[in-house]
Amino acid sequence: MKNYEVKVLGTGMYAPKKIVTNVDLEQIVETNDQWIFERTGIRERRICSTEGGEFPTDMAYHATLDALKASGLNPNDIDLILFASVTPDVKLPNSATILQVKLGITNNCACLDIAAACSGFVYGFNMASAMIKTGMIKNALVIGSEMLSREVNWKDRNTCILFGDGCGVAIIGRAEEGSSSKVYSSVLSADGTGGEFFDQPVGGAVTPITATHLNEGTHYMQMKGKEMFKVATRTLAENAHKVISEAGLELKDVNWVVPHQANIRIIETTAKLIGMDMEKMIVNIDRYGNTSAATVPIAFHEAIADGRIKRGDIVLFDAFGAGLTAGATLIKY
Ligand SMILES: CC(C)(COP(=O)(O)OP(=O)(O)OC[C@H]1O[C@@H](n2cnc3c(N)ncnc32)[C@H](O)[C@@H]1OP(=O)(O)O)[C@@H](O)C(=O)NCCC(=O)NCCS
Fold first, then answer.
1. Residues of the chain with confidence (pLDDT) below 50
2. Cα-to-centroid distance, 35 and ligand 1 (Å)
3. Among this protein's residues, is 241 annotated catalytic?
4. Nearest partner of 180 among 312, 41, 43, judged by Cα
5. What are the pLDDT digits (tens) for 22-64?
6. Fewer Cβ in 10 A, N or C end of the chain?
7. What residues does each domain of the chain span?
8. CA-CA distance, 17 to 166, in Å (whole number)?
9. Which helix H or strand E contains 326, and what residues bound it?
10. Can you tell me whether residue 119 is helix, strand or coil?
11. Which among 131, 161, 186, 147 has a CA at the least distance from the CA of 4?
Protein backbone atom coordinates (compact mmCIF):
# COMPACT_ATOMS: atom_id res chain seq x y z
CA MET A 1 0.00 0.00 0.00
CA LYS A 2 1.25 3.51 -0.80
CA ASN A 3 2.17 5.66 2.16
CA TYR A 4 1.46 9.37 1.90
CA GLU A 5 3.02 12.20 3.90
CA VAL A 6 0.76 14.53 5.87
CA LYS A 7 0.80 18.32 5.74
CA VAL A 8 -0.97 21.00 7.76
CA LEU A 9 -2.65 22.93 4.96
CA GLY A 10 -4.28 25.70 6.96
CA THR A 11 -5.34 26.73 10.47
CA GLY A 12 -7.91 29.05 12.02
CA MET A 13 -9.34 30.11 15.35
CA TYR A 14 -12.26 31.93 16.93
CA ALA A 15 -12.16 33.72 20.29
CA PRO A 16 -15.50 34.84 21.74
CA LYS A 17 -15.88 38.62 21.95
CA LYS A 18 -16.54 38.87 25.69
CA ILE A 19 -13.40 39.17 27.83
CA VAL A 20 -13.65 38.28 31.53
CA THR A 21 -10.63 39.43 33.55
CA ASN A 22 -9.44 38.15 36.91
CA VAL A 23 -10.66 41.43 38.38
CA ASP A 24 -14.14 40.68 36.99
CA LEU A 25 -14.00 37.30 38.78
CA GLU A 26 -13.27 39.08 42.08
CA GLN A 27 -16.92 40.22 41.91
CA ILE A 28 -18.18 36.62 41.55
CA VAL A 29 -16.06 34.46 43.90
CA GLU A 30 -13.62 35.11 46.73
CA THR A 31 -10.40 35.42 44.75
CA ASN A 32 -8.00 38.05 43.47
CA ASP A 33 -6.03 38.87 40.36
CA GLN A 34 -2.67 38.28 42.07
CA TRP A 35 -3.57 34.76 43.30
CA ILE A 36 -4.93 33.69 39.92
CA PHE A 37 -2.01 35.10 37.94
CA GLU A 38 0.69 33.78 40.26
CA ARG A 39 -0.82 30.27 40.58
CA THR A 40 -2.03 29.81 37.00
CA GLY A 41 -0.57 32.47 34.67
CA ILE A 42 -4.09 33.49 33.60
CA ARG A 43 -5.02 37.19 33.27
CA GLU A 44 -8.26 36.87 31.34
CA ARG A 45 -10.44 34.42 29.42
CA ARG A 46 -13.10 34.64 26.69
CA ILE A 47 -16.70 33.68 27.36
CA CYS A 48 -19.26 32.79 24.67
CA SER A 49 -22.46 34.71 24.26
CA THR A 50 -25.46 32.68 25.43
CA GLU A 51 -27.66 34.58 22.97
CA GLY A 52 -26.37 32.57 19.98
CA GLY A 53 -23.74 33.03 17.30
CA GLU A 54 -20.87 31.77 19.46
CA PHE A 55 -21.85 28.18 20.27
CA PRO A 56 -19.15 25.56 19.62
CA THR A 57 -20.18 24.84 16.03
CA ASP A 58 -20.56 28.59 15.32
CA MET A 59 -17.00 29.20 16.53
CA ALA A 60 -15.83 26.22 14.48
CA TYR A 61 -17.60 27.59 11.40
CA HIS A 62 -15.75 30.94 11.60
CA ALA A 63 -12.39 29.29 12.39
CA THR A 64 -12.84 26.84 9.49
CA LEU A 65 -13.52 29.62 6.97
CA ASP A 66 -10.08 31.05 7.82
CA ALA A 67 -8.46 27.62 7.62
CA LEU A 68 -10.09 26.95 4.23
CA LYS A 69 -8.78 30.28 2.94
CA ALA A 70 -5.27 29.51 4.21
CA SER A 71 -5.33 26.05 2.65
CA GLY A 72 -6.86 27.10 -0.68
CA LEU A 73 -9.50 24.38 -0.38
CA ASN A 74 -13.25 24.43 -0.89
CA PRO A 75 -15.61 23.03 1.77
CA ASN A 76 -16.36 19.99 -0.43
CA ASP A 77 -12.65 19.08 -0.50
CA ILE A 78 -13.00 18.00 3.16
CA ASP A 79 -13.33 14.20 3.43
CA LEU A 80 -13.56 13.93 7.22
CA ILE A 81 -14.59 16.18 10.11
CA LEU A 82 -13.29 15.31 13.57
CA PHE A 83 -14.82 17.57 16.20
CA ALA A 84 -13.17 17.39 19.62
CA SER A 85 -15.28 18.85 22.40
CA VAL A 86 -16.67 18.05 25.84
CA THR A 87 -19.26 20.79 25.38
CA PRO A 88 -21.13 19.92 22.16
CA ASP A 89 -23.96 22.19 20.96
CA VAL A 90 -26.47 19.37 21.61
CA LYS A 91 -26.30 15.67 22.57
CA LEU A 92 -27.59 14.53 19.19
CA PRO A 93 -26.72 14.93 16.36
CA ASN A 94 -22.98 15.26 16.77
CA SER A 95 -21.26 18.62 16.35
CA ALA A 96 -19.32 17.50 13.28
CA THR A 97 -22.55 16.93 11.34
CA ILE A 98 -23.97 20.30 12.45
CA LEU A 99 -20.78 21.94 11.22
CA GLN A 100 -20.94 20.00 7.94
CA VAL A 101 -24.30 21.64 7.20
CA LYS A 102 -23.11 25.13 8.29
CA LEU A 103 -20.14 24.82 5.92
CA GLY A 104 -22.39 23.75 3.05
CA ILE A 105 -20.51 20.46 2.59
CA THR A 106 -22.61 18.19 0.37
CA ASN A 107 -20.14 15.31 -0.23
CA ASN A 108 -21.47 13.18 2.67
CA CYS A 109 -18.04 13.22 4.36
CA ALA A 110 -17.62 11.24 7.57
CA CYS A 111 -18.38 13.23 10.73
CA LEU A 112 -17.25 12.20 14.19
CA ASP A 113 -17.08 13.86 17.61
CA ILE A 114 -14.18 13.05 19.88
CA ALA A 115 -14.65 13.06 23.66
CA ALA A 116 -11.07 13.04 24.92
CA ALA A 117 -11.24 16.30 26.88
CA CYS A 118 -8.13 18.49 26.62
CA SER A 119 -6.32 15.89 24.48
CA GLY A 120 -9.19 15.80 21.96
CA PHE A 121 -7.55 17.87 19.22
CA VAL A 122 -4.31 15.86 19.34
CA TYR A 123 -6.34 12.62 19.30
CA GLY A 124 -8.19 13.89 16.21
CA PHE A 125 -5.02 15.09 14.53
CA ASN A 126 -3.37 11.69 14.96
CA MET A 127 -6.43 9.73 13.83
CA ALA A 128 -6.89 11.90 10.74
CA SER A 129 -3.21 11.79 9.83
CA ALA A 130 -3.22 7.97 10.05
CA MET A 131 -6.13 7.90 7.58
CA ILE A 132 -4.36 10.35 5.26
CA LYS A 133 -1.12 8.33 5.41
CA THR A 134 -2.87 5.18 4.21
CA GLY A 135 -4.67 7.03 1.41
CA MET A 136 -8.11 6.37 2.91
CA ILE A 137 -8.90 10.09 2.86
CA LYS A 138 -7.22 13.14 1.35
CA ASN A 139 -8.17 16.11 3.53
CA ALA A 140 -9.45 16.30 7.12
CA LEU A 141 -10.81 19.11 9.22
CA VAL A 142 -9.79 18.69 12.87
CA ILE A 143 -11.42 20.93 15.46
CA GLY A 144 -11.16 21.71 19.15
CA SER A 145 -14.10 23.88 20.19
CA GLU A 146 -15.37 24.42 23.72
CA MET A 147 -17.93 26.41 25.65
CA LEU A 148 -16.73 25.41 29.10
CA SER A 149 -18.42 28.45 30.66
CA ARG A 150 -21.65 26.38 30.52
CA GLU A 151 -20.15 23.50 32.52
CA VAL A 152 -18.12 25.21 35.25
CA ASN A 153 -19.56 26.07 38.61
CA TRP A 154 -19.28 29.86 38.80
CA LYS A 155 -19.52 29.57 42.59
CA ASP A 156 -16.45 27.30 42.85
CA ARG A 157 -13.24 29.33 42.92
CA ASN A 158 -11.13 26.18 42.55
CA THR A 159 -12.33 25.64 38.99
CA CYS A 160 -14.14 28.68 37.55
CA ILE A 161 -10.98 30.81 37.43
CA LEU A 162 -9.19 28.26 35.22
CA PHE A 163 -11.38 27.82 32.17
CA GLY A 164 -12.42 29.76 29.08
CA ASP A 165 -14.20 29.33 25.76
CA GLY A 166 -12.75 29.24 22.25
CA CYS A 167 -12.03 27.25 19.13
CA GLY A 168 -9.04 26.29 17.02
CA VAL A 169 -8.96 24.20 13.84
CA ALA A 170 -6.48 22.68 11.42
CA ILE A 171 -7.05 21.32 7.94
CA ILE A 172 -4.57 18.58 7.23
CA GLY A 173 -4.11 16.70 4.00
CA ARG A 174 -1.89 14.70 1.69
CA ALA A 175 1.43 16.51 1.22
CA GLU A 176 2.21 17.34 -2.41
CA GLU A 177 5.23 15.75 -4.19
CA GLY A 178 8.45 17.39 -3.04
CA SER A 179 6.97 18.87 0.15
CA SER A 180 9.07 18.41 3.29
CA SER A 181 5.99 18.52 5.54
CA LYS A 182 5.28 15.35 7.48
CA VAL A 183 4.08 13.76 10.70
CA TYR A 184 7.14 12.07 12.20
CA SER A 185 5.60 10.23 15.12
CA SER A 186 2.72 10.29 17.53
CA VAL A 187 1.50 8.76 20.73
CA LEU A 188 -2.03 8.51 22.12
CA SER A 189 -2.54 7.22 25.62
CA ALA A 190 -5.01 7.07 28.50
CA ASP A 191 -5.05 5.97 32.12
CA GLY A 192 -8.68 5.50 33.09
CA THR A 193 -7.80 4.87 36.73
CA GLY A 194 -7.35 8.65 37.15
CA GLY A 195 -10.84 9.44 35.85
CA GLU A 196 -12.05 10.72 39.19
CA PHE A 197 -9.40 13.49 39.26
CA PHE A 198 -11.47 15.49 36.79
CA ASP A 199 -15.04 14.45 36.13
CA GLN A 200 -18.67 15.40 35.71
CA PRO A 201 -20.61 12.34 36.90
CA VAL A 202 -24.05 13.95 36.91
CA GLY A 203 -25.97 14.41 33.66
CA GLY A 204 -25.23 11.10 31.95
CA ALA A 205 -27.21 7.87 31.66
CA VAL A 206 -26.28 6.74 35.18
CA THR A 207 -27.36 9.90 36.99
CA PRO A 208 -29.68 12.21 35.08
CA ILE A 209 -29.78 15.80 36.37
CA THR A 210 -32.51 16.45 38.93
CA ALA A 211 -33.77 19.62 40.57
CA THR A 212 -31.61 18.76 43.61
CA HIS A 213 -28.45 18.71 41.48
CA LEU A 214 -29.41 22.04 39.96
CA ASN A 215 -30.01 23.56 43.40
CA GLU A 216 -26.78 22.18 44.86
CA GLY A 217 -24.65 22.79 41.78
CA THR A 218 -23.41 19.18 41.77
CA HIS A 219 -23.97 18.77 38.02
CA TYR A 220 -20.88 20.82 37.09
CA MET A 221 -17.32 19.71 36.31
CA GLN A 222 -15.23 18.97 39.39
CA MET A 223 -11.48 18.68 39.64
CA LYS A 224 -8.77 17.61 42.04
CA GLY A 225 -6.24 20.22 40.94
CA LYS A 226 -3.16 18.98 42.76
CA GLU A 227 -3.53 15.38 41.51
CA MET A 228 -4.08 16.59 37.94
CA PHE A 229 -1.02 18.81 38.16
CA LYS A 230 1.33 15.96 39.12
CA VAL A 231 0.15 13.46 36.51
CA ALA A 232 -0.04 16.17 33.82
CA THR A 233 3.59 17.24 34.09
CA ARG A 234 4.90 13.67 34.23
CA THR A 235 2.79 12.47 31.28
CA LEU A 236 3.43 15.52 29.08
CA ALA A 237 7.20 15.10 29.55
CA GLU A 238 7.12 11.31 28.98
CA ASN A 239 5.10 11.62 25.76
CA ALA A 240 7.34 14.42 24.46
CA HIS A 241 10.43 12.26 24.96
CA LYS A 242 8.66 9.30 23.34
CA VAL A 243 7.71 11.04 20.08
CA ILE A 244 11.10 12.73 19.72
CA SER A 245 13.02 9.48 20.16
CA GLU A 246 10.58 7.52 17.96
CA ALA A 247 11.22 10.06 15.21
CA GLY A 248 14.95 9.49 15.55
CA LEU A 249 15.38 13.19 16.39
CA GLU A 250 16.95 15.04 19.29
CA LEU A 251 15.57 17.74 21.54
CA LYS A 252 17.65 20.40 19.78
CA ASP A 253 15.89 19.57 16.48
CA VAL A 254 12.53 20.67 17.86
CA ASN A 255 11.78 24.33 17.05
CA TRP A 256 8.52 24.72 18.99
CA VAL A 257 6.41 22.94 21.56
CA VAL A 258 2.69 23.67 21.54
CA PRO A 259 1.59 22.39 24.95
CA HIS A 260 -1.90 22.16 26.40
CA GLN A 261 -2.56 25.38 28.31
CA ALA A 262 -3.87 24.37 31.74
CA ASN A 263 -1.53 26.27 34.05
CA ILE A 264 1.69 28.19 33.33
CA ARG A 265 3.36 26.24 36.15
CA ILE A 266 2.47 22.96 34.39
CA ILE A 267 4.03 24.32 31.19
CA GLU A 268 7.15 25.49 33.02
CA THR A 269 7.57 22.22 34.92
CA THR A 270 7.02 20.21 31.72
CA ALA A 271 9.61 22.31 29.87
CA LYS A 272 12.09 21.61 32.65
CA LEU A 273 11.34 17.86 32.62
CA ILE A 274 11.69 17.73 28.83
CA GLY A 275 14.82 19.89 28.96
CA MET A 276 13.33 22.54 26.67
CA ASP A 277 13.86 26.34 26.88
CA MET A 278 10.71 28.23 27.87
CA GLU A 279 11.26 30.46 24.79
CA LYS A 280 10.38 27.45 22.64
CA MET A 281 7.11 26.78 24.47
CA ILE A 282 4.14 28.53 22.84
CA VAL A 283 2.17 30.16 25.65
CA ASN A 284 -1.10 32.09 25.49
CA ILE A 285 -2.78 30.94 28.71
CA ASP A 286 -2.63 34.53 30.02
CA ARG A 287 -5.28 35.57 27.44
CA TYR A 288 -7.52 32.50 27.15
CA GLY A 289 -7.15 30.28 30.23
CA ASN A 290 -7.78 26.57 29.72
CA THR A 291 -10.07 26.07 26.70
CA SER A 292 -9.68 22.25 26.84
CA ALA A 293 -9.52 20.72 23.33
CA ALA A 294 -9.11 24.21 21.83
CA THR A 295 -5.85 25.22 23.56
CA VAL A 296 -3.41 23.43 21.24
CA PRO A 297 -4.98 24.49 17.90
CA ILE A 298 -5.46 28.09 19.10
CA ALA A 299 -1.84 28.37 20.26
CA PHE A 300 -0.65 26.67 17.05
CA HIS A 301 -2.68 29.02 14.86
CA GLU A 302 -1.54 32.16 16.72
CA ALA A 303 2.13 31.18 16.43
CA ILE A 304 1.73 30.60 12.68
CA ALA A 305 -0.21 33.85 12.23
CA ASP A 306 2.41 35.97 14.04
CA GLY A 307 5.29 34.35 12.14
CA ARG A 308 6.93 32.38 14.95
CA ILE A 309 6.13 28.97 13.41
CA LYS A 310 7.38 28.85 9.81
CA ARG A 311 7.23 26.21 7.08
CA GLY A 312 9.91 23.60 7.71
CA ASP A 313 9.84 24.08 11.51
CA ILE A 314 9.60 20.98 13.67
CA VAL A 315 6.66 21.35 16.03
CA LEU A 316 5.59 19.18 18.96
CA PHE A 317 1.95 19.08 20.11
CA ASP A 318 1.69 17.87 23.70
CA ALA A 319 -1.69 17.51 25.41
CA PHE A 320 -3.17 16.04 28.56
CA GLY A 321 -6.67 16.01 29.98
CA ALA A 322 -9.54 14.42 31.85
CA GLY A 323 -9.85 10.68 31.45
CA LEU A 324 -6.90 10.79 31.96
CA THR A 325 -6.11 11.10 28.27
CA ALA A 326 -2.89 12.28 26.67
CA GLY A 327 -1.50 12.72 23.19
CA ALA A 328 1.63 14.01 21.51
CA THR A 329 2.60 14.47 17.88
CA LEU A 330 5.80 15.60 16.23
CA ILE A 331 5.40 17.25 12.82
CA LYS A 332 7.37 19.16 10.26
CA TYR A 333 5.07 22.09 9.50
C1 LIG B 1 -6.06 24.39 40.54
C2 LIG B 1 -4.68 24.92 40.85
C3 LIG B 1 -4.46 26.24 40.14
C4 LIG B 1 -4.59 25.17 42.33
O5 LIG B 1 -3.28 25.63 42.66
P6 LIG B 1 -2.55 25.15 43.99
O7 LIG B 1 -1.27 25.87 44.05
O8 LIG B 1 -2.55 23.65 43.94
O9 LIG B 1 -3.50 25.72 45.07
P10 LIG B 1 -4.23 24.93 46.25
O11 LIG B 1 -5.36 24.13 45.70
O12 LIG B 1 -3.20 24.22 47.06
O13 LIG B 1 -4.78 26.12 47.09
C14 LIG B 1 -3.94 26.95 47.85
C15 LIG B 1 -4.80 27.88 48.67
O16 LIG B 1 -5.42 28.82 47.80
C17 LIG B 1 -6.84 28.79 47.98
N18 LIG B 1 -7.49 29.01 46.69
C19 LIG B 1 -7.94 28.08 45.80
N20 LIG B 1 -8.47 28.68 44.74
C21 LIG B 1 -8.36 30.01 44.96
C22 LIG B 1 -8.74 31.15 44.23
N23 LIG B 1 -9.34 31.05 43.03
N24 LIG B 1 -8.46 32.36 44.73
C25 LIG B 1 -7.86 32.49 45.92
N26 LIG B 1 -7.49 31.45 46.69
C27 LIG B 1 -7.74 30.22 46.20
C28 LIG B 1 -7.12 27.40 48.50
O29 LIG B 1 -8.34 27.40 49.22
C30 LIG B 1 -5.92 27.17 49.40
O31 LIG B 1 -6.11 27.84 50.63
P32 LIG B 1 -5.71 27.11 52.00
O33 LIG B 1 -4.22 26.91 51.88
O34 LIG B 1 -6.13 28.10 53.03
O35 LIG B 1 -6.47 25.84 52.01
C36 LIG B 1 -3.58 23.93 40.43
O37 LIG B 1 -3.61 22.82 41.28
C38 LIG B 1 -3.74 23.45 39.03
O39 LIG B 1 -3.60 24.20 38.07
N40 LIG B 1 -3.98 22.14 38.84
C41 LIG B 1 -4.04 21.52 37.55
C42 LIG B 1 -5.14 22.01 36.73
C43 LIG B 1 -5.34 21.09 35.59
O44 LIG B 1 -4.55 20.27 35.33
N45 LIG B 1 -6.43 21.26 34.92
C46 LIG B 1 -6.88 20.44 33.88
C47 LIG B 1 -5.86 19.78 33.10
S48 LIG B 1 -6.56 19.24 31.65
1. none
2. 9
3. no
4. 312
5. 999 999 999 999 999 999 999 999 999 999 999 999 999 999 9
6. N
7. 6-174, 182-332
8. 10
9. strand 325-332
10. helix
11. 131
Atom 20 in ligand 1: residue holding the nearest Cα: 158
Estimate to the nearest angstrom the gap between the alpha carbon of 67 and the chain centroid: 16
> Any catalytic annotation for residue 118?
yes
Q: What is the model's pTM?
A: 0.97
Cα(150) to ligand 1 centroid in Å equals: 21
Tell me which CATH homologous superfamily contains domain 182-332: Thiolase/Chalcone synthase (3.40.47.10)
Under DSSP, the state recorded for 173 is E
Cis peptide before 259 (omega within 30 of 0): no
pLDDT in tens, 281-321: 999 999 999 999 999 999 999 999 999 999 999 999 999 99
- Cα distance between residue 85 and residue 258, in whole Å: 19
Active site residue 160: no
CA of 42 from ligand 1 middle (Å) equals 13
* Nearest-angstrom CA–CA distance, 39 and 223: 16
Give 38 Cα–ligand 1 centroid separation in angstroms: 11
Which pLDDT score, from 0 to 100, does residue 1 have? 64
CA 203 to chain centre: 23
Residue range 6-174 in CATH 3.40.190.10: no
Asked if residue 87 lies in contact with residue 56, where contact means CB atoms within 8 angstroms, the answer is yes
Q: Which of 111, 118, 160, 167 is catalytic?
A: 118
Residue nearest to atom 2 of ligand 1 (CA): 225
The pLDDT of residue 9: 98
Tell me, yes or no, if the two domains 6-174 and 182-332 fold the same way: yes
Atom of ligand 1 nearest to the CA of 158: 20
